[in-house]
Design a protein that fits this description.
CATH class of chain A: Mainly Alpha
Radius of gyration of chain B: 37 Å
CATH architecture of chain A: Orthogonal Bundle
Radius of gyration of chain A: 14 Å
Number of helices of chain B: 28
Shape of chain A: globular
Largest sheet of chain B: 8 strands, mixed
CATH superfamily of chain A: Winged helix-like DNA-binding domain superfamily/Winged helix DNA-binding domain
Largest interface: A-B, 30 and 33 residues
Structural class of chain A: mainly alpha
Strand content of chain B: 5-15%
Oligomer: heterodimer
Number of domains of chain A: 1
Low-confidence stretches of chain A: 85-95
Distance between the termini of chain A: 17 Å
Number of helices of chain A: 6
Number of strands of chain A: 2
Helix content of chain B: 40-55%
Largest sheet of chain A: 2 strands, antiparallel
CATH topology of chain A: Arc Repressor Mutant, subunit A
Distance between the termini of chain B: 55 Å
Strand content of chain A: 5-15%
C-alpha cells in the first residue's frame, strides 16, 4: 500500500519496488481490493494504443485504504526506511 | 472498477502475442473463475506487454530478459489459484464436484457397489485390451515396421496342400534378383542343433538360418559383436553364429568374452561373432542364428523351407509390390513348370502373419469382456435410475428454485463420471493383476506375449472406457430427470404414480431386457466353447495315451552322415531300451500320434500320372517295427512293419484308413504300389501297400485325419525320430532317467530334451481351447450373475414402488398366490424378451466363434435351447425373491406406506 501511495500503481511496478514475487503481490492486491482498501482502474486505451500494447490496470488507495496505511505506518515505521533507501524506488509514472 | 471498453488495438494484440509469458497466462486463465477470467487475462497481458516494450526500448532483448519475464509470469499460477479459491466459490464445476462427493459419501454402500462393479468391469476389459494391444495392435519392434512384409507362396488353384507358404532357396534368389519393389529381401528357416559346451550335457537348441541381410532388413543390429556378412554365406567360409540374448545369458552367463569363442554345434566348431539385443522381436524361439550357407538340398527348386521377408522400398505400396511379386511368380512358373506349377505369390504385412493364429481368440475374448462391462453399465444405470427416482423431489425443488435443465444434467453426469473415474483408478489395479494372471495362465502359443504391458495406449483406453462408461450410465437417468424436473407437478405428485414413473419403469425394464440379452449371447458363446472342449476331451483319441513316455532325438548329420549309420543307431537304441526294467514295449517313429509331421507327394502305380505339380499329397511317417502296438493304434488289415523290411529289400508301406478312403474308395489297396520317388540314395522308389492301420489324431483330437503313409524306417531313414516307451507301470515318468542313460550309453554327445508323458503332450495340445473356454466361461458367469442381480434389483424396486397398490389389491381380497404370480410374471416377461433377443443375436453372430470350435456346430440347437432355458430359470429365480416379499405385504402396513 505504501508503494501505491508513493505512486507505484501498476502490478509490475509494485514488484520492482518491493522486490516481492508476482505470485505474492497479486493475491495481496486482490485481498486489499476485496477489503475495500484499494480500487483498480484501467489506463486510457488511447495511451496504450499509442504505445502499441494493451491497456494496463492500475491501483489506487481508497479513503479507507489511506487511513489504514497511516495506521500501519505508525505501527511499523521501518517500512518507510526500506523505501527511503536510495535507488530502490523507481520514479513514479503518471497513469 | 471499470474495464477497458474500447477495443484493443490490433498492434496491441500482436504485441501481446510476442511478449514472453503471455501464452502461459492465457493457458492459466482457464483456472480463473469465468466471471473474472477476461479481466484477469487483460491485466496480466497488459503488464507483460508493457514490461516487454520497456525491455525492447532499452534494447534488452536478450534471452535473459525473456526468461526473467517468463519467470514473472509464473506468478500468474498462484494468482489464478488464489482467485479460484476465494472467488470461485460459485464456480459450477467445483460446486458439482463438492455436491457429488458429499452425495457419494452419504451413501457408502451405493458408492462401494458402483465402484466395485466398475473396477472389475473396467479392469477386466483393460486387462484383455492390454493383451490385444500388445499382440495385435502395437507396431512390431523394428524401424518402419509397416514396411516389413512376408512374401509367401500361394496356390493359384487354392490347393494349399500342394503349394504352401514357404519358398525354395532358388526361387528366393530369383525373386531377389528380379524384384524392384523391395529395398531388401531376406530368407530364413528354423532348425535344431546340438550345442555341446565343455562341462555340461549336450543340449538341443533351436536355431534360425538366415541370409546375411536379414538383420539389416529388419533394421536391427546385434547388441554385441557383428551380424552376418555376405562372405559368411559362401560355402567353405568359417562357420559363425550369432547368439540370442537368452541363450547368451543362460548358457554363457552373459560373458562379454563370448565373442570369438568357438562352440560346438552338431559336433562342428562354430565361432560366436555376435549377440542379439534382448528385445529382438522376430523368431524369439530361435536360440541362435547362423548364416544360410546353401546345401545340396537348397539347390532343389522343389524343396520349400524358407520364409522370405522383405522391406518395401520407399514409396512402394503393398499392392504395387504384391503385383510385382505375382508377376515374378508367374514367370518362374513358366520357366520351371515341374517345380513351380500353380505356385503364385502373395504379400502379407509381417505383423498380420505373426499374430494371425492368436487373433480370433483374442478378439472373441475382448468382445466378451466388453459385453460384461456393458451389462455392468446397464446394472449401474438401473441403480442410478432408482436413485434418481428417490431424489425426484429434491430435484423438483431445485428446478423450482431456478436450476436449469443443463445444470441438473451436468450435476448428474459429474456424479457418474466421478464414480467411474474412481472405479477406473481402482480398475487400474485389477487390470494390472488381470494382465499378469492372463500372461501367466495363457498358453505359450500367444505370440509377442512379452511385449504386453500397461503402456500409454492401454492407459488411454482405460481412461476412455471410464469416461464412456460414466456417460453411458449417467446420461440415461439424467435424461429421465430432465423430464421429471421440468414440471413442478412432480412436487405435488407425491409418491403415487406419475407419468415419469411409468416411463422410468419402462426404461428400467428395457435395461434388464438388454442385460438378459447380452448375457444370453455370452453364455451361448461360452457354452459352445465348453461343449467343443468337452467333446474333444471325450473323443476317442484313436490310440492308448496312458503309460507312454516320449522324447525326441536328432542325430547330427556330421557324425551320422549315412542312412545306414542312422538306422543302426536307432536299431541298437530300441534293443537297449527294450532291456530296461519296467519297459513293456518301445517304438521309434518320425512322429508320435499327436505330431503333425509333413506331407509329400506320391503317385499310385497303375493309374494315369497326374500332371506335374498336381500329384496327391500324404503325410510321411517312417516307423520302426512295434510302433502301432506300442502306441495302441489298431492294425486293421494286412501286416505290420517288420524287421525284414530292410534298406535293400522290397519297398513296403502301410496306409491309414483316410488314405484307403480317399484313394481306394472301391478297391482293395493291399498289394497296390506307391511311387514316391527316391528320397534317400539306394532306397526303393516303389512301395507295396502291405497293411492298413486306424487313423491317428495327428491334426488334433477330434479332427479328421489326412491320408498318411507309414514307411519302414530303414527304407526311409530320417535322422530326427521320437522314442516312444510304454511303461509296464502306471507312471511312465519313472523311466525317464533310464531312457537318458541308455541314449548316452550309445552316444554321450547326443542331446535329449526332457522326456514327456503322452498325457502331458495331450494336455498341452488342448491348452489353448481350455484357456479360451475357461476365460469365456468366467465372463459368462459374471454376465449371468449381473443379469440376475439386475433383474432382482428392478423387480425389488417395482415391488417397493407398488407397495400401496399391492396393499389395496390384497385388502380387496387378492390371494397371495396371485400377487406372487403378478411379480414373477413381470420378471418372466422381461426374461422372455431378453432371452429371445439374445438368442437371435447369438444366432446371427455365431460365425465369429466358428474358428474356435471343433466338433460342434456353431448353431448347436442343444446349446441354444439349454442356454435359453437356463437364462429364463435364472431370471425367474431372481424375480422370485421380490415376489415373495410382495406376497407377504400386510395390507394395513402397505396402505399406510408412503
Amino acid at each position: 500500500m505504501h508503494a501505491i501511495a508513493r505512486g507505484m500503481r501498476h502490478g509490475f511496478d509494485i514488484l520492482d519496488a518491493t522486490g516481492l514475487q508476482s505470485g505474492t503481490v497479486y493475491p495481496i492486491l486482490r485481498r486489499l481490493e476485496d477489503a475495500g482498501l484499494l480500487r483498480s482502474r484501467w489506463e486510457a486505451v488511447e495511451r496504450a494504443r499509442a504505445e502499441g500494447r494493451p491497456p494496463r490496470r492500475y491501483y489506487e488507495l481508497t479513503g479507507a485504504g489511506a487511513m489504514a496505511l497511516q495506521e500501519a505506518l505508525a505501527r511499523h515505521p521501518e517500512v518507510l526506511d526500506a523505501f527511503a533507501a536510495p535507488g530502490s524506488v523507481p520514479q513514479p509514472r503518471p497513469a | 472498477m471499470t474495464r477497458p471498453d474500447a477495443p484493443v488495438p490490433e498492434s496491441a494484440d500482436e504485441a501481446a502475442a510476442a511478449a514472453p509469458g503471455v501464452a502461459l497466462v492465457r493457458w492459466l486463465s482457464w483456472l480463473v473463475p469465468s466471471t473474472r477470467r477476461a479481466e484477469w487475462t487483460a491485466e496480466w497481458e497488459g503488464e507483460l506487454c508493457h514490461a516487454w516494450r520497456q525491455r525492447q526500448r532499452t534494447a534488452d532483448d536478450t534471452t535473459f530478459a525473456r526468461a526473467a519475464l517468463a519467470f514473472r509470469a509464473l506468478g500468474a499460477l498462484r494468482d489464478a489459484l488464489w482467485l479460484r479459491r476465494h472467488h470461485g466459490a460459485h464456480d459450477m464445476l467445483d460446486l458439482d464436484l463438492k455436491y457429488a462427493v458429499r452425495g457419494l459419501r452419504r451413501r457408502p454402500g451405493f458408492t462401494a457397489v458402483v465402484v466395485l462393479t466398475l473396477a472389475l468391469g473396467i479392469g477386466a476389459t483393460t486387462a484383455i485390451f492390454s493383451v490385444v494391444n500388445g499382440v495385435l495392435l502395437r507396431p512390431l519392434p523394428f524401424p518402419e515396421p509397416d514396411r516389413l512384409v512376408y512374401l509367401r507362396g500361394h496356390p493359384i488353384d487354392g490347393d494349399v496342400a500342394k503349394v504352401g507358404t514357404a519358398q525354395s532357396y532358388l526361387d528366393y534368389l530369383d525373386i531377389r534378383a528380379r524384384a524392384r519393389s523391395f529395398s531388401s529381401l531376406a530368407a530364413v528357416r528354423g532348425g535344431t542343433q546340438t550345442l555341446t559346451l565343455p562341462g555340461s550335457e549336450p543340449a538341443l537348441v533351436s536355431e534360425a538360418v538366415a541370409t546375411s541381410n536379414l538383420f539389416p532388413t529388419l533394421g536391427v543390429a546385434p547388441a554385441l559383436g557383428r551380424g552376418f556378412v555376405p562372405d559368411d554365406e559362401r560355402p567353405g567360409s568359417p562357420a559363425v553364429a550369432v547368439l540370442s540374448d537368452a541363450l547368451w545369458r543362460d548358457r554363457f552367463g552373459g560373458d562379454l568374452a563370448v565373442l570369438g569363442r568357438s562352440i560346438r554345434l552338431d559336433g562342428e566348431p562354430v565361432t560366436v561373432v555376435g549377440v542379439l539385443p534382448p528385445a529382438f522381436g522376430y523368431r524369439r524361439s530361435a536360440q541362435l542364428w547362423r548364416p544360410l550357407v546353401p546345401t545340396r538340398i537348397d539347390m532343389e527348386r522343389g524343396t520349400h523351407q524358407y520364409a522370405v521377408i522383405g522391406r518395401l522400398a520407399a514409396g512402394v505400396s503393398l499392392e504395387q509390390a504384391a503385383s510385382e511379386a505375382r508377376a515374378i511368380a508367374r514367370g518362374l512358373e513358366l520357366q520351371y513348370p515341374a517345380d513351380n506349377a500353380k505356385r503364385g505369390a502373395r504379400l502379407e504385412p509381417m505383423r498380420d502373419v505373426l499374430v494371425q493364429d492368436a487373433r480370433p481368440a483374442l478378439l472373441v475374448l475382448f468382445g466378451a469382456v466388453a459385453l460384461v462391462l456393458l451389462i455392468g453399465c446397464a446394472n449401474l444405470a438401473s441403480l442410478f435410475l432408482a436413485r434418481a427416482a428417490a431424489r425426484e423431489r429434491e430435484v423438483a425443488v431445485r428446478a423450482a428454485l431456478g436450476a436449469g435443465r443443463g445444470r441438473l444434467l451436468r450435476q448428474f453426469l459429474t456424479e457418474s463420471l466421478l464414480l467411474t473415474l474412481i472405479g477406473g483408478a481402482a480398475g487400474l489395479g485389477v487390470a494390472w493383476g488381470g494382465m499378469r494372471a492372463l500372461l501367466a495362465l495363457a498358453p505359450r502359443t500367444i505370440p509377442r506375449a512379452d511385449e504386453v504391458a500397461l503402456d500409454l495406449p492401454v492407459l488411454a483406453f482405460l481412461l476412455g472406457a471410464s469416461v464412456l462408461t460414466g456417460i453411458a450410465f449417467g446420461v440415461l437417468p439424467a435424461l429421465q430427470l430432465r423430464r421429471g424436473a421440468a414440471s413442478v407437478a412432480s412436487l405435488k405428485d407425491g409418491a403415487r404414480g406419475a407419468t415419469a414413473g411409468v416411463a422410468r419403469r419402462r426404461l428400467r425394464h428395457g435395461l434388464v431386457v438388454g442385460e438378459v440379452a447380452l448375457a444370453t449371447v455370452l453364455v451361448v458363446g461360452a457354452a459352445l466353447l465348453l461343449k467343443s472342449f468337452w467333446l474333444t476331451q471325450r473323443v476317442d483319441p484313436g490310440f492308448a495315451p496312458d503309460g507312454l513316455l516320449v522324447a525326441q532325438l536328432e542325430l547330427p548329420s556330421t557324425r551320422y552322415d549315412a542312412p545306414a549309420k542312422v538306422v543302426r543307431f536307432y536299431d541298437r537304441l530300441r534293443g537297449e531300451l527294450e532291456g530296461v526294467r519296467g519297459v513293456q514295449s518301445v517304438a521309434v517313429a518320425y512322429e508320435h500320434p499327436l505330431g503333425e509331421g509333413w506331407t509329400s507327394s506320391f503317385t499310385i502305380e497303375g493309374r494315369d500320372r497326374p500332371p506335374v505339380g498336381l500329384e496327391p499329397e500324404a503325410r510321411v511317417r517312417p516307423v520302426q517295427p512295434g510302433y502301432f502296438k506300442t502306441v495302441g493304434v489298431p492294425l486293421l488289415r494286412g501286416r505290420d512293419v517288420t524287421e525284414r523290411d530292410r534298406a535293400g529289400g522290397a519297398g513296403a508301406v502301410l496306409i491309414n484308413e483316410a488314405f484307403a478312403r480317399v484313394h481306394f474308395p472301391n478297391e482293395d489297396p493291399i498289394g497296390r504300389r506307391i511311387d514316391r520317388g527316391t528320397w534317400f540314395e539306394g532306397m526303393p522308389a516303389s512301395y507295396e501297400i502291405v497293411g492298413i492301420v486306424a487313423d491317428e489324431p495327428f491334426l488334433g483330437l477330434g479332427r479328421a485325419a489326412d491320408p498318411a503313409l507309414y514307411f519302414p524306417h530303414p527304407q526311409f531313414p530320417m535322422s530326427a525320430m521320437w522314442i516312444i516307451v510304454r511303461s509296464a507301470s502306471a507312471d511312465p515318468r519313472a523311466l525317464a532317467e533310464a531312457v537318458r542313460e541308455r541314449v548316452w550309453r550309445l552316444d554321450p554327445e547326443l542331446p535329449l530334451d526332457e522326456a514327456k508323458t503322452m498325457r502331458e503332450v495331450l494336455g498341452s495340445s488342448v491348452a489353448e481351447p481350455r484357456f479360451n473356454a475357461a476365460l469365456l466361461s468366467l465372463f459368462a458367469g459374471a454376465a449371468l450373475l449381473l443379469a440376475a442381480v439386475g433383474t432382482y434389483g428392478v423387480l425389488s424396486y417395482t415391488v417397493l414402488q407398488r407397495t400401496s397398490e399391492i396393499g389395496v389389491r390384497m385388502a380387496l381380497g387378492a390371494p397371495r398366490g396371485r400377487v406372487l404370480r403378478l411379480v414373477v410374471g413381470e420378471g418372466v416377461g422381461v426374461a422372455m424378451l431378453g432371452v429371445a433377443l439374445g438368442t437371435a443375436t447369438a444366432f446371427a453372430f455365431a460365425r465369429v466363434l466358428s474358428s474356435l470350435l471343433q466338433g460342434v456346430d456353431e448353431r448347436d440347437p442343444v446349446v441354444f435351447g439349454g442356454v435359453a432355458g437356463l437364462l429364463t430359470l435364472v431370471v425367474v429365480a431372481a424375480a422370485y425373491l421380490p415376489a415373495r416379499r410382495a406376497s407377504r405385504i400386510e395390507p394395513v402396513v402397505a396402505l399406510r406406506y408412503e
